[in-house]
Amino acid sequence: MTGTLRSIPLIWKFPKRNIFECMILHYLFLKVNGYACFSISGELESGKTRTTAVDRAWFLVCLAVVVTLWTINITVVERPVDVSPLLSIGSRLMWFTCYLTVLFGIVWNFLYRDKVWSLYVNVFKVDQQLLALGANMYYTEMYLAMIGFSLVSFVFMGVLNIGHVLDVGFELWEFSTFLYSNASLMMLVTIYSIAGSLVWLRLWALNSVMEYYFEENSFNYLN
């Protein structure tokens, strides 16, 4: 855990100078949710990771939570009697798909945990090439946008859960499964949206560099 603990101060370090200073918060976000059950070993740029006993235990805890709530949602939670059978079946299928997606994400990310951090390492290498070409990567702005997007997601999830309680009332098991399934789904959307934005931002930076060189060469040619 040494490398992980050493990297935590990067969360509030400004301005951001590289992708690791931005994405360490994303990594910790993944770790808390069971999608990054590994620890950073050595320097961030090295891409070296290790799986400690704590990581393995946390993976088992996250796995147990998903399976337990999934089972409760299917077998224990009772649906309102005034709900049509078709709607009840559709609701169960929706939660089934949600939990299955979470379960698959946790297991897949654990089995291929070395590839999770390698994504950041590869992005870092691409950034070095783009910076050498004169691109502005806007790391600080990207970091603030990531935090803003995550906060909006959490607010939306909170409003959704409050609305659910006001609509159907509060029952511990039912609310727990509803909260976890919605939170997991929202986290998946947030996580993969942020990961996808890494690719989009690099393409945008590359396009900006190409436009600059094209305009400069065109100007020199005309003169």
Automatic annotation (TrEMBL):
Gene Ontology terms: biological process? sensory perception of taste
* Membrane topology according to the record: Multi-pass membrane protein
Q: Which keywords has UniProt assigned to this entry? A: Cell membrane, Membrane, Transmembrane, Transmembrane helix
User: Under the cellular component aspect of Gene Ontology, which terms does the record hold?
Assistant: plasma membrane
Q: Which domain of life is it from?
A: Eukaryota
Annotated TM spans: 57-77, 89-111, 143-166, 178-201
Can you say what this protein is called? (northern house mosquito) hypothetical protein
